[in-house]
Structure formats: structure tokens, C-alpha cells
Amino acid sequence: MNERAIVCKGLTKRFGDFIAVNNISFDVDQGEIFGFLGANGAGKTTAMRMLCGLSYPTSGEAAVAGYNVFKQQEAIKRNIGYMSQKFSLYESLTVKENIRFYGGVYGLSDRQLKEKGDELITQLGMENEVKKMVGSLPLGWKQKLAFSVAIIHQPRIVFLDEPTGGVDPVTRRQFWDLIYAAAEKGITIFVTTHYMDEAEYCNRISIMVDGRIDALDTPANLKQQFRATSMDEVFYALARSAKRSAD
To answer: Is 180 exposed, middle or buried (0-12, 13-18, 19+ CB in 10 A)?
Structure first.
């Protein structure tokens, strides 16, 4: 992990007088699992949209997969994968049709689509489901399929926006096994989550409060810093501190 997948310096996004993302700076190593935490409205999604090439920053600097977020947004999109909480799948298409559609969007050739698609289906154990509509699948299977489709083109980085929302704890843990397997292949994982137990699975985490990054370190170091036994306690300590400052 000696290369930087993401470099971010002073990144800021304003909407009129409102500062959604306030001068944030951090680096993410290639192959790292980086957790991006914060309450609703903290600025996580706005920051992620800038890093994915979907929104221009107001000021600051950032590079994703070596490409400038101001000048090379299309190159960024070609080198990343993305999965949202809604899993980004077309429920009225079959499993196979979803795989072919997203593989095509990511620029795979017909031969690559065949090879990668067959490999993906086998890995997920979905040989008997390839002709089923995605809308008929259990939630956990949709989740695993959506993640696998998001990395079918072997991107340098995959952005996961609340990917485990609404699924049971066992399925969430199985999903993290997929994340670990992708990271072992060198794919950088940039993940937002509101499940504090999942923060423990990350190599490092940042915690956003009111558009700022108020903490950034390994889970173990943060718990030590805040004299906490869990990431929940760290998060609540930061929230209390922010409230006192606002008052």
C-alpha cells in the first residue's frame, strides 16, 4: 500500500452561503479499506460526489486514481466503481442482463463480458438464478451482486455509499468478506456507513462533523485517543464536543 489512490487537500464545497464540505484533507493508500463516517448531513455524500467526478469542488485540490477532480472527471469515472445503498441494479432485468449491462457501461468487450460474467456467477453461486429477475432475489443476494458488478472491470477504487443499509447482521458480515477479497486484489475500498461496528473492519476511518473531518486514524488509535471501548463511544464523544462548540 505504497501508492496513493486518493489525495485530498483543502477540499471545499459551498452552496451559496452554506459550506457542505469544509476544507477537508486526507490520503487513501492503494488497497486500503477506508471508512468515511458521519451523521446524516455531515457532508459525506457531497464529498463522495466530488471524488467520483460527479460534482465540481468550490476550492481545494484532489486526485482520484491519479486524475484531477477539476479537469479529469471522465477519466476518474472510468477508473472507479460505485455502489449505493439502493444497490444500483435494474430489478426488471435478469441477473445476466444486469451483468452484461454494467459490464458494457464499464467498457468491457464481449469476450471480457463472457469471461467475467461467468466467473462472477460462479463465485456468487448464482448459476440457478441467472435468468431470474433481480427484483425477485433476496436482499442479501442483490447486495452481493451489486458489489460484484461494481468491480467487474477491476477498478482501482470502488466507492460504497451505505452499502449494508437494511440487511441483517449475518448478511452484512458476509458482504464484508467480499470487501476483504477485493482489497486483497489491490482494489481500494472507500466506504460510508452508519454502522459503527463496521468501522472496526476498516484499516483507517475518518469521522465528519458539520462538513469537517474531526477525527482520522485507525479504529484502535481512535478508541485509545478518546478512552473508548467502541467506535460508538468515539462517535458520540465527537458529537458532544461539536454540540458544546456550537452552543
So the answer is: exposed
